[in-house]
Design goal:
The complex is a heterodimer of chains A (143) and B (507).
Chain A (H helix, E strand, L loop, with lengths): L38 H16 L3 H14 L6 H7 L1 H9 L3 H17 L3 E4 L2 E4 H9 L7
Antiparallel strand pairs in A: 1-2
Helix pairs in contact in A: 1-5, 2-6, 4-5, 4-6
Chain B lengths: L1 E3 L7 E10 L3 H9 L7 E4 L8 H4 L4 E3 L7 H4 L14 E2 L4 H4 L14 H14 L9 H8 L10 E8 L5 H10 L4 E5 L2 E7 L6 E7 L5 E11 L5 H8 L24 E2 L4 E5 L10 E6 L5 E10 L1 H6 L5 E5 L19 H8 L6 E10 L8 E8 L5 E6 L4 H20 L4 E3 L2 E2 L2 E2 L36 E3 L14 H17 L9
Parallel strand pairs in B: 1-7, 2-3, 2-10, 3-7, 4-18, 10-22
Antiparallel strand pairs in B: 5-6, 6-14, 8-9, 9-10, 11-16, 12-16, 12-19, 13-14, 15-16, 17-18, 20-21
Helix pairs in contact in B: 1-7, 1-12, 5-12
The chains are: A mainly alpha (143), B alpha/beta (507).
């Protein structure tokens, strides 16, 4: 029998959640060509690419990023965040454009799931690359 | 014919070739099949044609394990039994469910899936669903409802819905008109009397709530009282055996299983463009015998190969929504699912997301500590009430967490969405609720040390005593049990037809 009076009916709030959060970040508008590979612009580019991947208020991804860094037992210094995000950084570095980077990241996310590289953070079961990208959003956009 | 047992003379004796205790889905199915077989049948029912509070109070009992539905209300004592409030969900067990799995102790039925298929086909007719065709691909093609683009690790499956068939209303007239079937209402089995060597049932000692007692003598006896009452009557029959009948190894009542249901704690977030029509309850291409349309509902589980490889239990996940179940009060977790994160992960901000709840129905592994015992308090007939101590092997929880992670990965790999479960890798915050499916406490097997009935549903110890219903399930899979209960009843009816019937009264 499957009619059960005590069952919870969860998450309905999300069925109407879309539009209010479709707010593009001004920092990720447009698809710029990758800037020169200096330490300063590199950090900015990594962060902006990560933010561009999520395309919404950056605090949403940051919450996951903070959880991921904690999950790894690291602090939130730039060095630790980069250490926690090596795979995602590598993908971003190898891409010639931000759009290419995002496409490559999307492939990496699916590959993560296919190969069992997932992590559970704040209730979400997400791919390792997604977690790393979330962590990268913790870096300041201008490093 | 239908006879009110309250009209019988006190001390009366009735005789039949086959006596079936319990006129629910199982008992009525057997009685229907035995019509015109040359056998006389006596079908005993505790209640009448409608529910009666006084009769229903005989089911009162205590719950001392995981909180579950009230045992008084979850089973109906009336013609048709619990089909009186059955929701109609139908799906057979899977072939894998019948197999021994080395990682699940005591798994492996003594019969194979293929042994039951002919009876499943008959059961489909009995419960008024479509043909025995469980191909989701065929359903998707015929209905134009697309399956999710998931990989081979996922088994896409579906339920058919019975109208639902209320056996009491639908089949009572047929039985009433049968010359060789007598349905005795308001008749309660109080004691199973054995012969001197304790190897055969000599009679059922019965009573009504009005106080008249009578005996039934038969060649063969069938307990079809439901997953709890089968146990209760066996354990309470202590006039000759201190531990009850067919309980020489102390197995009766042990290994009680439910289908743990995970309601309200597993969310799936997906792009709004994902088509879930196949997973919403709606019309199928299947037709009943009367030409009406059978409703269906798609679900997700793990493919047998993946399940074996990862040493997991079977489960089915349905998307909550219109028709997929009754909505209840929202749980506090609903407030904490961050919508912006959902959109960030699933659509990267470039499209709307939707979220729904997954209801997961799981198998549980046979667990000796999960059991039905007799309490000290008595019902109005002087029979001890039951104490239901439903428990789940802690390892099952670990397995379910692994299974949900695999499901999440498959959804993610296919780009369908993300799973959200409160908690973290070490502990999901969820609750296991019951499905009202009572299984396993007189389990089927070949070893009398860990089972009560053999492959023919006959008790190991008492040669003319059979048990049927959910209580004989060796393992329960995740499918709602009614279709399998009816299939097993058809199979037992054929067994009874084939058997020889010695003198009704034992020496």
């Amino acid at each position: 029998m499957n009619s059960y009076p005590r069952r919870g009916f969860l998450l309905q709030v999300l069925t109407v959640c879309g539009t209010p959060f479709l707010v593009p970040l001004t920092s990720v508008e447009g698809h710029q060509k990758a800037p020169a590979d200096t330490a300063v612009t590199r950090g900015s580019q990594d962060t902006q690419t990560a933010a561009s991947y999520f395309g919404v208020r950056i605090d949403a991804a940051r919450t996951i990023g903070e959880a991921y860094v904690r999950h790894l037992g690291l602090d939130t210094s730039a060095e630790s965040i980069r250490k926690a995000s090596l795979s995602a950084l590598d993908i971003i570095k190898q891409a010639s454009t931000r759009q290419n980077a995002i496409t490559a990241l999307e492939r990496a996310v699916r590959r993560d799931f296919q190969q069992g590289r997932s992590v559970q953070l704040e209730g979400w079961i997400i791919s390792r690359t997604e977690a790393e990208l979330c962590a990268l959003t913790l870096l300041p956009a201008t490093n | 014919m239908i006879i009110d047992a309250r009209t019988l003379a006190d001390g009366a004796t009735l005789e039949a070739d086959v006596c079936i205790a319990g006129a629910g889905a199982a008992g009525m199915t057997i009685a229907l099949d035995l019509r015109a077989s040359g056998l006389s049948v006596l079908l005993l029912e505790s209640g009448g044609t409608e529910q009666d509070p006084g009769v229903q109070s005989l089911s009162e009992g205590r719950m001392i394990g995981i909180d579950t539905w009230n045992v008084r209300t979850m089973r109906i004592r009336a013609l048709g039994g619990t089909t009186g409030h059955w929701a109609g969900w139908c799906r057979p067990l899977t072939p894998q469910d019948f197999e021994a799995r080395d990682y699940i102790p005591l798994s492996g039925w003594p019969i194979k899936y293929s042994d039951l298929v002919p009876f499943y086909r008959r059961a489909c007719e009995t419960v008024q669903i479509g043909e025995f065709d469980w191909s989701s691909t065929a359903r998707a093609k015929a209905t134009g409802k697309a399956l999710l683009p998931l990989g081979d690790a996922i088994d896409q499956r579906y339920y058919q819905f019975s109208p639902p068939t209320r056996f009491g209303r639908f089949y009572a007239d047929t039985l009433a008109q049968a010359d060789d079937v007598r349905v005795l209402t308001f008749a309660n089995v109080g004691d199973i009397r054995l012969d001197q060597r304790r190897g055969r049932v000599e009679s059922f000692a019965c009573r009504t709530l009005q106080g008249n007692a009578f005996h039934v003598h038969a060649g063969r006896y069938v307990l079809a009282l439901g997953g709890i009452e089968n146990v209760r009557v066996l354990l309470a029959s202590r006039s000759q055996e201190s531990d009850g009948v067919a309980n020489g190894h102390g197995v009766v009542g042990k290994y009680f299983m439910e289908h743990p249901h995970y309601y309200g704690s597993i969310g799936v977030v997906h792009p709004s463009t994902v088509d879930l029509a196949f997973y919403r309850r709606g019309p199928s291409d299947l037709r009943r015998a009367d030409g009406t349309t059978v409703e269906m509902l798609g679900a997700l589980g793990l493919a047998a190969e993946m399940s074996r490889r990862e040493k997991l239990l079977n489960f089915s996940a349905t998307f909550q929504g219109t028709g997929a179940g009754r909505a209840g009060p929202a749980k506090p977790q609903s407030a904490v699912l961050p919508a912006s994160t959902a959109q960030a992960l699933v659509t990267h901000g470039d499209g709307d997301v939707s979220a729904t709840e997954l209801t997961v129905r799981s198998e549980q592994s046979p667990f000796r500590e999960s059991r039905i015992t007799l309490a000290e308090d008595l019902d109005a007939l002087g029979m001890p009430r039951v104490a239901l101590d439903w428990r789940i092997d802690p390892e099952d929880d670990v397995r379910m967490r692994r299974a949900m992670v695999i499901l999440a990965r498959e959804l993610g790999a296919a780009g369908v969405g993300r799973l959200w479960i409160p908690g973290d890798a070490s502990r999901f915050v969820w609750r296991q609720d019951p499905g009202g499916h009572h299984m396993g406490a007189t389990r089927m097997g070949t070893d009398p040390a860990v089972s009560v009935v053999n492959a023919d549903s006959r008790t190991h110890q008492v040669e003319n005593l059979y048990i049927t219903g959910g209580s004989v399930f060796t393992t329960g899979g995740d499918s709602n049990p009614t279709l399998t209960i009816v299939a097993l009843a058809h199979r037992l009816a054929d067994t009874l037809k084939r058997g020889t019937f010695p003198a009704k009264k034992s020496a």
